[in-house]
Amino acid sequence: MKIDELAQDVKEQLPQEAQQIFVAAFNAAHSDGLSEEGARQVAWSSVKNQYKQGDDGKWHIKADETANPNKPITMGGY
Questions:
Q1: Does 58 or 66 have the greater pLDDT score?
Q2: Within-domain flag for 38
Q3: What is the pTM of this model?
Q4: 20-60 per-position pLDDT tens digit
Q5: Which of 13, 39, 47, 58 gives 30 a disulfide partner, CB atoms 3.0 to 4.6 angstroms apart?
Q6: Taking CA 62 as the corner, what is the angle to CA 59 and CA 65, rounded to the nearest 5 degrees?
Q7: How far apart are CA 4 and CA 42, in angstroms?
Q8: What's the domain range around 10?
Q9: Residue 57 to residue 59: CA distance in whole angstroms
Q10: CA 7 to centroid of chain Cα atoms
Q11: Cβ proximity of 53 and 59 under 8 Å
Q12: Burial 8-37, CB ≥16 within 10 A → b, else e
């Protein structure tokens, strides 16, 4: 998946950096054998590690220490 292939509502809600996180996590999970739905769940979890949804419906970077760009992406069930 590429950023320009994201659904329009995802592109409107997520800032550019969060879109990049989403796509990278989706592609990694999908190449590891997860279904498209499973990869999408991993991608949203990755975004939620660093962003939170505001009252405006858009996602904003978290201002506290829970946003850790060096935190590895982990998947359960293995």
A1: 58
A2: yes
A3: 0.77
A4: 999 999 999 999 999 999 999 999 999 999 999 999 989 99
A5: 39
A6: 160
A7: 19
A8: 3-61
A9: 7
A10: 13
A11: yes
A12: eebeebbeeebbebbbebbebbbeeebeee
Backbone angles phi, psi at 27, to 5 degrees: -65, -40
67 assigned to some structural domain = no
Would you place residue 63 in the very low, low, confident or very high pLDDT band (cuts 50, 70, 90)?
Answer: confident
Among candidates 31, 29, 30, 7, which has minimal Cα distance to 19? 7
- Helices within the chain (DSSP H only): 8-13, 16-31, 36-50
Residue 65 pLDDT > 60, yes or no? no
Whether residue 69 is contained in a domain is answered as no
Question: Please, are residues 2 and 23 in contact by the beta-carbon 8 Å criterion?
Answer: yes
49 neighbors 68 (Cβ within 8 angstroms): yes
The reply to whether 75 falls in a domain is no
- Rounded to 10°, the helix 36-50/16-31 angle is 140
